[in-house]
Design brief:
CATH architecture of the largest domain: 3-Layer(aba) Sandwich
Number of helices: 11
CATH class of the largest domain: Alpha Beta
Order of helices and strands: HEHEHEHEHEHEEHEHHEHH
Structural class: alpha/beta
Length: 316
């Protein structure tokens, strides 16, 4: 693997990466995807690195994907859950992290409900920070694995049209995907009810549609987002039934299109709401490929961020 490194010591958001960073992550993930498909799926790349997984929000897919990536790289792992911690007793985020770092932790993977929490930590501690999702701000590794999955399917982003459909307003995945896809040269459209599309979203260089069929006719790839009911403090549409009627994607709708569209979803899927089971499990869906690629992408990110530290350890 090439002895290269990212332009930043943290992964706080796609906003802070350039195209060379994205290409380097994808090329490194290509190598790691070969590793995880071998009979022996482990490499000693991060053997001397300790990583703390700090999840202040519930997570299944992202947490397991990061843990698996860390184990495949032979890192030492410390898992932290706020539900069983001194955070419940009033301990601050900085005190919590500093206590963990005093145990000689090198990297922190953090999910937090507050936008900007990973950036706050990056300004106060020396460890590498990986943002595993901060509020409704960004989810960079999800965007990277989504783009990597598209690259695997199409080979290039030039002229590619990607529609992001659903709850754009509350989605950190949508913002990271927009940044990532635009930097890679794809065209992007967002689609959803008017109440779930942020004002001035077009200022990010994307198209906008309120009609799901129009978006599907336009795009090559549809990345369908779940309704983030847990983040909604008011009702943005009358009912889930009505949302499904106007924005749900089923087999009948896909069959009515002029060309075949690739279906993606960051998970978890609300089956029967944004996607029918028939669509989610169809040959047009690359949802399971996204899950597999998530491990390779997170291996690549951890490896590249830790590379300067690993070289320092080897030189001592």
């Amino acid at each position: 693997m090439a002895d290269l490194q990212l332009s930043t010591k943290h992964l706080l958001g796609i906003k802070y990466l350039d195209r060379n960073d994205l290409e380097l992550i994808f090329e490194t993930a290509d190598s790691f995807k070969e590793v995880i498909n071998r009979p022996i799926k482990k490499v000693p790349s991060l053997r001397d690195i300790t990583i703390a997984n700090l999840f202040f929000e519930n997570s299944t897919r992202t947490r397991i994907s990061f843990e698996l990536a860390e184990k495949r790289l032979s890192a030492d792992i410390v898992n932290f859950s706020s539900a069983a911690s001194s955070v419940k007793k009033g301990e601050t985020l900085l005190d919590t992290v500093n206590n963990i770092l005093s145990m000689k932790v090198d990297m922190v993977v953090m999910r937090h409900p507050a936008p900007g929490a990973p950036a706050f930590l990056a300004n106060h501690i020396k460890a590498n920070i990986v943002n595993a999702g901060d509020g409704t701000h960004e989810h960079p590794t999800q965007a990277l694995l989504d783009a990597f999955s598209i690259r695997e399917k199409f080979g290039s982003f030039k002229g590619l049209k990607v529609a992001i459909i659903g709850d754009i307003l509350h989605s950190r995945v949508a913002l990271s995907n927009i940044f990532c896809l635009k930097k890679l040269g794809a065209e992007v459209m967002v689609c959803g009810p008017p109440t779930l599309l942020p004002k001035h979203i077009e200022s990010l260089g994307v198209k906008k549609s309120y009609q799901v069929k129009d978006a599907l006719e336009w795009c090559d790839v549809a990345n369908v987002l779940r309704i983030q009911l847990e983040r909604q403090d008011i009702k943005y549409f009358p009912s889930l039934r009505e949302y499904t009627q106007y924005y749900g994607i089923d087999r009948l709708l896909l069959d009515s299109l002029k060309s075949e569209v690739v279906i993606m979803h960051p998970g978890p899927i609300n089956r029967g709401v944004e996607l029918s089971s028939e669509v989610a499990d169809s040959a047009q869906s690359i949802i399971l490929e996204q899950v597999e690629n998530g491990v390779a992408i997170r291996m690549a990110v951890l490896y590249l961020l830790a590379a300067p530290r690993s070289r320092t350890l080897q030189d001592t």
